[in-house]
Amino acid sequence: MKKLHFLKPKLVKPKFFLGIPLALFSLEIYFGAIFGYFVARFLSGKEVGDPAKIKSLAFNIGKYRFHFHHWFYGLGILAFVLLLGLSFPFPQFSFGFFGGFIFQGVYCYPDWHKILMKRY
């Protein structure tokens, strides 16, 4: 008996619909997030291990390997600005930009959480 593949529903990731609540909150944050997402998408590799224009910082200390992904850069910049009480030239757009940058790194890569790994 043949399987009918066209009857099987396809699961689609609703990337577009994730931004609707954000757009209702602030269009500046929304456009910043969209722009940050696509900039990170353009500058990073398509898959894990592919060459990228944004190089991840990775180094070894003793038995451990630290791997700082590009989303971690964006998180560090946001934390630095917030903790020191600094401000960006366009604050809402900038926070959206770095949020989109971080979201792309976490959402598109299955190894986003592997920052500290034990070496063998």
N-to-C terminal Cα separation, in Å? 49 Å
* Regions with little confidence, pLDDT below 50 for 5+ residues: none
Radius of gyration, Cα only, in angstroms? 18 Å
Largest sheet strand order: 1-2-3
Q: Quick one: biggest sheet?
A: 3 strands, antiparallel
Multimerization state: single chain
Q: In percent, how helical is the residue content? A: 40-55%
In round numbers, the mean pLDDT is 80
Structural class category: mainly alpha
**Total count of domains:** 1
Net shape:
globular
- Total helical segments: 5
Order of helices and strands: HHHEEHHE
Approximate strand percentage? 5-15%
What is the β-strand count? 3
Summarize this structure as a short list of keywords or feature phrases.
single chain; 5 helices; mainly alpha
Description:
The chain is mostly helical and 120 residues long. It has one domain. The chain is 50% helix and 11% strand. The chain contains 5 helices and 3 strands. A 3-stranded antiparallel β-sheet has the order 1-2-3. A hairpin with a 2-residue loop joins strand 1 and strand 2. Helix 4 runs antiparallel to helix 5. The chain starts with 14 loop residues before the first helix and ends with a strand. The mean pLDDT is 80.
